[in-house]
Design a protein that fits this description.
Low-confidence stretches: none
Number of domains: 1
Number of strands: 0
Oligomer: single chain
Strand content: under 5%
């Protein structure tokens, strides 16, 4: 996937997720069991996670290179990246922290 395809894919997936969440009742949206995040908290986490990525994708390649350098290895395919991410999450290697943690409130609406 190139940069524009990634942006388009993220926008589509995010919009679909948001539309589905709008159909949920506030009680279901805010339901949290066994210490797990509610759907609303997942939405909050996704929004917090996507914002820096969107800012990064808006940068011209030369600014990215100046600030962080360019990779000297082949990029992962989207499928390989998804698999690597899923493995990290399911094995507990990846956990949200700091500003990426969702708010602890329980009064979210699908519009938040």
């Amino acid at each position: 996937m190139n940069k524009n395809e990634i942006i388009q894919h993220l926008n589509s997936a995010h919009q679909l997720f948001r539309e589905e969440a709008k159909n949920l009742s506030p009680s279901l949206l805010n339901l949290s069991t066994h210490g797990k995040w509610s759907i609303a908290q997942h939405i909050d986490h996704i929004n917090k996670s996507i914002a820096p990525l969107c800012n990064y994708l808006r940068l011209p390649k030369d600014k990215i290179a100046l600030k962080w350098g360019l990779s000297n290895r082949t990029s992962l395919s989207f499928k390989d990246l998804q698999e690597k991410f899923q493995h990290a999450v399911s094995s507990g290697l990846a956990k949200a922290s700091g500003s990426y943690l969702p708010a602890e409130r329980s009064d979210f609406s699908a519009e938040d």
